[in-house]
């Protein structure tokens, strides 16, 4: 939006906010006054719909006791909330389930993905991915006797072609958690399929921030967390997407009773439920799951395309402010400038990143640092404004 090279002013920010179609969404979040919250890519802000929903769940627990599982819809919640998240992923109902952490879902999905390509021995993993993804891939490799190779995203397409018919799985993050770079899901998914492999996307930093099109792209598996752009709260359960074409042969390692065809029949052996219900594991964290469900209410009246447009406008504006005010102070904008390569955060590199972020926190500007020298600023278009972006850069200039 702000293509001009001239130094942006606070009046520019005010004008952009005045014409922002999502400006009214901020009132749905309980943000403390005096805080500019640019860390929603780590932990989303508290939606005002959540406290009442948690209170209602506590009431159900207190009054309905065990019958809450059926009478209050707790048992069906993993698939019900999964379908609501699926709507944000471009996934038709019946392919997304919620429960457990992203790490657990990654382990389950990666193992199930490799089992779908039995006989192929190589797994390629995004080298710039979040540590948990790489740690788990290495462990799955040891468990199944697979070769796991960490590959930079820049060389991934070539590596996929070179590995050819030994390639079982490609596992990568849609958005780089450090740089904020958005990768080309369509191109990598197609390349993996051309090699006969399946793809597993970690969309922790994309879900709820930008439109995704899993079904249209033919994505095989995806996982993502509930606590970043979905604002489900600390420890919110993660989701798993399994494309319906894999449900027949899906074979997960964590065969817990919630994924059983007859969970209360206590049969001697494990028999998976039909459809996505087979991807359930054990008893889900109902309080967190229903908090996440309430947090999703905001997406009922908001179009993700508008959230994406707002995010790009905010990050454009932040980058323009940074170019104008910070480039002489040792900062470098790490995040790609092309819209198609940018997620919903801006990362700045500076040798004194830690000290600068500490000073910013003292002024109520909250982002985070990833070692050794990256300052991350996340932009959730539902509650961050252009004035926030302007004031944050002004604060960075002051403390640097
Ligand atoms: C890309 C990515 N994957 C996974 C995780 C975390 O996994 P978990 O929810 O299991 O802590 C994070 C952040 O915490 C992340 O940024
Ligand atoms: N998952 C986190 C946690 O349990 C504690 C503090 C921060 C986080 C994060 O979300 C880190 C995050 N995945 C990142 O992008 O670095």
Would you give an account of this structure?
By secondary structure, this protein is of the alpha/beta class. The chain is built from 13 helices and 13 strands. The strands form three sheets. The chain has a seven-stranded mixed sheet with strand order 2-8-7-6-5-3-4, sandwiched between helices. A four-stranded antiparallel sheet has the order 9-10-13-12, with helices on one face. It binds pyridoxal-5'-phosphate and (2S)-2-amino-4-(2-amino-3-hydroxyphenyl)-4-oxobutanoic acid. The site of (2S)-2-amino-4-(2-amino-3-hydroxyphenyl)-4-oxobutanoic acid has 3 residues, from loops. Homodimer. It is an enzyme of class 3 (hydrolase).
Describe the secondary-structure layout.
Blueprint: H1 10-18, E1 36-37, H2 49-64, H3 68-71, H4 77-89, E2 96-98, H5 102-116, E3 122-126, H6 131-144, E4 147-151, H7 153-163, E5 167-173, H8 185-194, E6 198-202, H9 214-217, E7 221-224, E8 239-242, H10 286-295, H11 304-326, E9 332-333, E10 345-349, H12 353-362, E11 365-366, E12 368-370, E13 374-378, H13 386-399
Parallel strand pairs: 1-11, 3-4, 3-5, 5-6, 6-7
Antiparallel strand pairs: 2-8, 7-8, 9-10, 10-13, 12-13
Helix pairs in contact: 1-13, 2-10, 4-10, 5-6, 7-8, 11-13, 12-13
The structure holds pyridoxal-5'-phosphate and (2S)-2-amino-4-(2-amino-3-hydroxyphenyl)-4-oxobutanoic acid.
């Amino acid at each position: 939006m702000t293509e001009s090279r001239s130094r942006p002013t606070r009046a520019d920010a005010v004008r952009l906010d005045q014409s922002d179609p999502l400006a009214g969404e901020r009132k749905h979040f309980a943000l403390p006054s005096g805080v500019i919250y640019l860390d929603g890519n780590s932990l989303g802000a508290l939606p005002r719909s959540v406290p009442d929903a948690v209170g209602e769940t506590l009431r159900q627990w207190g009054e309905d006791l065990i019958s809450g599982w059926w009478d209050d819809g707790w048992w069906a919640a993993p698939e019900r909330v999964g379908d609501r998240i699926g709507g944000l992923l471009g996934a038709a109902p019946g392919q997304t389930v919620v429960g457990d952490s992203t790490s657990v879902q990654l382990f389950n999905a990666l193992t199930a993905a490799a089992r779908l390509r039995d006989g192929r021995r190589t797994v390629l993993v995004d080298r710039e991915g979040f540590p948990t993804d790489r740690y788990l891939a290495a462990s799955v490799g040891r468990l199944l006797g697979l070769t796991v190779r960490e590959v930079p995203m820049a060389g991934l397409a070539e590596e996929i072609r070179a590995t050819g018919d030994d390639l079982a799985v490609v596992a990568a993050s849609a958005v780089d958690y450090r740089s904020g770079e958005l990768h080309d899901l369509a191109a990598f998914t197609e390349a993996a399929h051309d090699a006969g492999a399946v793809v597993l996307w970690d969309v922790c930093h994309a879900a709820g921030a930008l439109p995704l099109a899993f079904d249209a792209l033919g994505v095989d598996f995806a996982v993502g967390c509930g606590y970043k752009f979905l604002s489900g709260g600390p420890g919110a359960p993660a989701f798993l997407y399994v494309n319906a074409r894999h449900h027949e042969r899906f074979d997960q390692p964590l065969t817990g009773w919630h994924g059983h065809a007859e969970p209360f029949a206590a049969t001697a052996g494990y028999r998976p439920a039909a459809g996505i219900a087979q991807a359930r594991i054990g008893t889900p964290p109902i309080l967190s799951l229903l908090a996440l469900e309430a947090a999703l209410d905001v997406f009922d009246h908001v179009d993700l395309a508008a959230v994406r447009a707002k995010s790009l406008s905010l990050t454009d504006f932040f980058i323009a402010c940074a170019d104008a005010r910070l480039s002489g102070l040792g900062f470098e904008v790490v995040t790609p400038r092309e819209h198609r390569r940018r997620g919903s955060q801006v990362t700045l590199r500076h040798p004194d990143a830690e000290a600068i972020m500490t000073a910013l926190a003292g002024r109520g500007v909250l982002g985070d640092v990833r070692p050794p020298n990256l300052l991350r600023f996340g932009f959730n278009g539902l509650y961050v404004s252009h004035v926030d972006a302007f004031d944050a850069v002004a604060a960075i200039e002051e403390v640097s």
